[in-house]
Amino acid sequence: MTAVGPQERLARAALTRVLEPGDEQGGRWLRTFGAAGLLDLFGSSAGARDTVRGQLAGATERRLDGYRARAARAVPERDLSAITAVGGRFVCPGDAEWPSQLDDLGPARPIGLWIRGRPDLRIWSLRSVAVVGARACTPYGAHMAASLSSGLAERGWVVTSGAAFGVDGAAHRGALAADGATVAVLACGVDVVYPPGHAELVGRIAEQGLVIGELPPGDHPTRSRFVLRNRVIAALTRGTVVVEAEYRSGSLVTARCAQRLGRFTMGVPGPATSGLSAGVHELLRGEGVLVTDAAEVVELVGDIGDLAPARRGPVLPRDLLDPVSARVLEALPARGAADGREIARVAGTTADETLGRLYELHSLGFVERHGDRWQLASRTTQETLARRGGA
């Protein structure tokens, strides 16, 4: 990996004020000319406009004027000082801390990332899972997000989300409650708290985890920036879990981006009648994988052998009987008693074998004897009725 020179770093910091996140055309120019070279082109005199447009394929005059105006106002030294003042840093491609999985975004790769928090982003991103979902989530959605995230944190996984109200906030809180690692990816400057109601939460994440974003200090979010932020969440993580999402939810944007990048895409099911789970269910009808807890998530995104425990209902005493004894027990009537010959006929066994099994079942408390007749013990009767769909 090539070390980033001071001039290139300064130019990339400036370009975070010039190019919008996810600008693929800008990303192609950046790859062609380098950050310093592209910034020089944007800063060219007005008289060189035609020459610059010839070099920047696809740049309209109006668009180029916009880039030039933004470049003229960019003061990267001030932005770098601002991030240092809040204990942060600016990381860009070529740095040791740069997560290489972001390169999967191609031309839409971030120019750089503004970061608050002490941990190393590259290391944390190696074992990271995104937990995203509805802002206006139900208590069920908040519970599932928090439970999943705390379980992931306890297993040594980093929980990544967007610090929004609803599922995002519950996911971060679940990880923090387990003293685990969590990353908040913002659609604004990392020194700007949005939503304002999450000031305390974002502060805790900055102290215990990482707060990151593509936009320079002081920049505020817009609708499009929220949508574009989701591609970073998807690219940084091994998989994305969606907890509650309507058909047009931004969380589904994250999930679809994860699918395009070859990441695991998972969904937590909800009631079939809930509009807030409709988007998740649509995801699960496609390539999404249904998950209900952290163990099932880790089984997908983890290493070989990280298997979720086998799931089964409770083991009843009669489940432990051998096949013949179970058949004899099933042959007894649900109500009333029967003699040994009748039971043998129904069970398809000999009278002697049936009698021997009945005595064994009696000693185990499954049946009662009344003279030559046998009947189910009271607790066995209830169990048999339940199994047969009786009252």
Task: Note the topology.
Elements: H1 6-15, H2 24-42, H3 49-55, H4 61-73, H5 76-85, E1 88-91, E2 113-116, H6 121-125, E3 128-133, H7 139-154, E4 158-161, H8 167-177, E5 182-186, H9 199-208, E6 210-213, H10 223-236, E7 239-243, H11 250-260, E8 264-268, H12 278-285, E9 289-290, H13 294-301, H14 323-331, E10 338-339, H15 340-347, H16 351-363, E11 367-370, E12 373-376, H17 378-388
Parallel strand pairs: 3-4, 3-7, 4-5, 5-6, 7-8, 8-9
Antiparallel strand pairs: 1-2, 2-6, 10-12, 11-12
Helix pairs in contact: 1-2, 1-5, 7-8, 7-13, 8-9, 10-11, 14-15, 14-16, 15-16
Characterize the biggest β-sheet: 9 strands, mixed
CATH class of the largest domain: Alpha Beta
Globally, the shape reads: elongated
Rg (CA only): 31 Å
Task: Quote the distance from N terminus to C terminus.
Answer: 72 Å
Determine the CATH topology of the largest domain: Rossmann fold
Helix content class: 40-55%
Number of domains: 3
Order of strands across the main sheet:
1-2-6-5-4-3-7-8-9
- Supply the helix-strand structural class: alpha/beta
Average of per-residue pLDDT values: 90
Number of helices: 17
- By CATH, the architecture of the largest domain is named 3-Layer(aba) Sandwich
User: Which H/E pattern describes the elements?
Assistant: HHHHHEEHEHEHEHEHEHEHEHHEHHEEH
Q: Strand fraction band?
A: 5-15%
Low-confidence stretches: none
